[in-house]
Amino acid sequence: MKNLLATVALAATTLTSGMAAAQDGPDLVTIITSPEPQTQLMALVLTFQAAQQGANAHIMLCGPAGDIALNDAPESATAGQPPRDMSPQGLMQVIRAQTGATVEVCAIYLPGRGEDASVLLDGIGVAAPDAMAARLMDADTRVLNF
Question: Where are the alpha helices (DSSP H) in the chain?
Fold first, then answer.
């Protein structure tokens, strides 16, 4: 937990901040399924940059990437990555705090683990398949898939 707090504090001071939570820009859905921390982190870096440029960010975590959203996340989600010693979970938290982005795990992630939403970090939900499908099909939505 101490490492996570240090990571979030580092991100808050080293990354550009100050975007308003409500944006009038395009909708962006970032779907992360990769088990690789560097891929997860790069997906989040690009999402953060897009949100800072006006996109309304929505992040859906599936499969191994769902672990980023866990209270008791594995080290792969919390260990800092070069060049700024940022972790996927730490940057995800920064994105939520600074841009108001929505973060959800896919609908089958928790049942696949035999767990419920109580294992997720505060403020992270479970994506409803009908709502996510509508979001993905909207002509004004841009989708990033990692």
Answer: 2-14, 37-52, 75-78, 88-99, 109-113, 129-137
The answer to whether the beta carbons of residues 98 and 53 sit under 8 Å apart is no
- Strands (DSSP E) contained in the chain are 27-32, 56-61, 102-105, 125-126, 141-145
Cβ proximity of 122 and 69 under 8 Å = no
C-alpha span between 70 and 67 (Å, rounded):
5
With CA atoms as reference, report the closest residue to 73 among 99, 40, 48, 97.
40
What is the token pair recorded at 64? 């191994």
**What are 69's two structure tokens?**
């959203």
Count of beta carbons in the 10 Å neighbourhood of residue 74 = 13
Model confidence over 17-50: pLDDT tens digits?
334 434 578 999 999 999 999 999 999 999 999 9
pLDDT at residue 63 above 60?
Answer: yes
